[in-house]
Amino acid sequence: MRPYQSDRIGVKLLDDLGEDNIMWGSDFPHPDGIWPDSQDFIQRELGHLPEATRRKIVRDNAPSSTAFR
User: Fold this and answer.
1) Whole-angstrom distance, CA of residue 67 vs CA of residue 7
2) pTM (2 d.p.)
3) How far is CA 65 from the centre of its chain?
4) pLDDT tier at 60, thresholds 50, 70, 90
């Protein structure tokens, strides 16, 4: 699993990829990242998804992809 900042095609493929296999990341603090506009990006790309799915993509999937389990 690799994080992404903006990938509208990936979100369209959510059913094929599986919501447990997608992880959003802002790339903070790098200057080419999208912070401080993270919430705008999340709303624009994931706003149409159910809250539980958004929560997995922006929060819950991150620890499960590392040794923090």
Assistant:
1) 26
2) 0.76
3) 13
4) very high
Token reading at 63: 């620890």
Contacts 24+ apart (CB under 8 A), 23-32: 23/57, 23/61, 23/62, 23/65, 24/57, 24/58, 25/62, 27/3
28-55 per-position pLDDT tens digit: 787 777 778 889 988 988 999 999 999 9
- Measure the CA–CA gap between 12 and 27, rounded to whole angstroms: 22
Asked if residue 36 has a cis previous peptide bond (ω within 30° of 0), the answer is: yes
Q: Tell me, what amino acid is at 10?
A: G
